[in-house]
Amino acid sequence: MPALNEGIIRRIPLKIPPLPEQKAIAAVLGALDDKIELNRRMNATLEAMARALFQSWFVDFDPVRAKLDGRQPPNLDPATAALFPDSFQDSELGHIPKGWEVGSILQQARLLSGGTPKTDVADYWNGDIPWASAKDVSQCGEAFLIATERCITQRGLDKSATKMIPEFATVIVARGATTGRLTMFGETIAMNQTCYALHTKVEAPFALYCQTRNFIERMVLSAHGSVFDTITTRTFETTNVLLLPFEVLWAFDQQVAPLFQQIRANLHQSHTLATLRDSLLPKMLSGSVTVSESVTPSPRANYDHG
């Protein structure tokens, strides 16, 4: 078609429900969208709470400073407060709590890589094993990735370098324009070679996630405006981080685990709601599923002024 104009568009036949029914459909879909948006905002708040606690304990060292001043660290029970020293020592990262160490993040995490099954072998694709690419990770925008754009078969997994990455591993885009974006896997997911995964050695996955975020942000700042477009194995081996004592790591994970578990539950609910919304729309528009016209519109579904 060389051109499209209003006259052509007006001649295209469309089956459109009556306006009251359209508003009823919009009310149902709007309610689902509102709940999905509410879950997203809740998750942002929950993650911000976890990261604020990490900042307080392991960046600002508030419990150590309180003890140094002779005060009881606020909002900490005596057992947790006892895990923090009452003085600092010098290190290459500046002042750190006395007795704590600096080293490679790989001293507390295993580095995992992935691969891609041959794209021209049909038997390797469209199975039931989720397979994450850099696109999935970079566009996730949440603390957890729970679904991927593509899936592979067991044969694709067996015949390629891809690996199953355990849930709660922190996954980072390692090359390209979105280098440094990261998330946790909310399920056991296969991964391609454009990402690295860090899996905790000390059963503290949420502390590792927060620490990796802090580590990556520090790397970006130290780039001084240069292009930050590649992360290699050597990056993890040679860049020093604060190595947190195991007991403190476990205490932190116990504090924030309910927050991250709620985030994951909200994501699963939102995924279910989005699937329901997308399946309902064509059925309601075609009339195969009817909805009462007395449904109260959601705020988003009010089209009186649009």
Describe the model.
With 306 residues, this protein is an alpha+beta fold. It folds into 2 domains: 25-100 and 244-306, Helix Hairpins (Orthogonal Bundle), CATH 1.10.287.1120; 105-243, DNA methylase specificity domains (Adenine-n6-DNA-methyltransferase TaqI, Chain A, domain 2), CATH 3.90.220. Helices cover 43% and strands 17% of the residues. It has helices at residues 6-10, 19-58, 62-68, 78-81, 134-138, 154-158, 205-222, 233-238, 246-286, and strands spanning 88-91, 94-97, 101-104, 109-112, 125-132, 144-145, 150-152, 163-165, 170-173, 182-185, 189-191, 195-200, 240-243. The strands form 4 sheets. It has a 5-stranded mixed β-sheet with strand order 4-12-9-10-6. The protein has a 4-stranded mixed β-sheet with strand order 7-5-11-8. A hairpin with an 8-residue loop joins strand 9 (170-173) and strand 10. The two termini are 30 Å apart.
Outline the secondary-structure elements:
Blueprint: H1 6-10, H2 19-58, H3 62-68, H4 78-81, E1 88-91, E2 94-97, E3 101-104, E4 109-112, E5 125-132, H5 134-138, E6 144-145, E7 150-152, H6 154-158, E8 163-165, E9 170-173, E10 182-185, E11 189-191, E12 195-200, H7 205-222, H8 233-238, E13 240-243, H9 246-286
Parallel strand pairs: 5-11, 6-10
Antiparallel strand pairs: 1-2, 3-13, 4-12, 5-7, 8-11, 9-10, 9-12
Helix pairs in contact: 2-9
| CATH third-level topology of the largest domain | Helix Hairpins
CATH homolog superfamily of the largest domain: Bipartite methylase S protein
Largest sheet: 5 strands, mixed
Tell me which CATH architecture of the largest domain applies here: Orthogonal Bundle
Model regions low in confidence, pLDDT < 50 over at least 5 residues: 301-306
How far apart the termini lie comes to 30 Å
Helix % is 40-55%
Number of domains: 2
